[in-house]
Amino acid sequence: MTHNLHQEFKVVFQPAGRTVYVLPGTLVLEAAIRAGITLNTPCGGTGTCGKCLVRKISGEVGSRDGKPSAGDSSLLACGNYIHSDAVIEIPESSTFEYAHKIVCDDHGSSVISDSAAPGQLGVAFDLGTTTVVGTLIELNTGKEIRVAGTLNRQTRIGDDVISRIQYSMQGAAALAKLRDAVTATLNVLLDELTSADERQRISKITLAGNTTMQQLFCGMDCSSLGSTPFEPQFREGIKHTAAECGLEISQDAEVYIFPQIGGFVGGDTVAGLLAAEMHETRQPVLFVDLGTNGEIALAHNGRLTAASTAAGPAFEGARISRGMRAVTGAIEKVVFDGGDLAFNVIGNVPPRGICGTAVIDITAELLRHGLLDSYGCLASAEDLPAGTPQGLQRRLTEADGQPAFVIAGPEDGAAEAILITQRDIREIQLAVGAIRCGINILLKRAGIEPKDLHEVLLAGGFGYFIRRNNACRTGLLPAVASEKIRCIGNAASLGAKNVLLSNAARLMAERVRASTEHYELSSAESFSEMFTDAMIFPAGN
Ligand code: FES
Question: For 40, how many CA atoms within 13 A lie in the half-sphere containing its CB?
Answer without folding.
Answer: 17
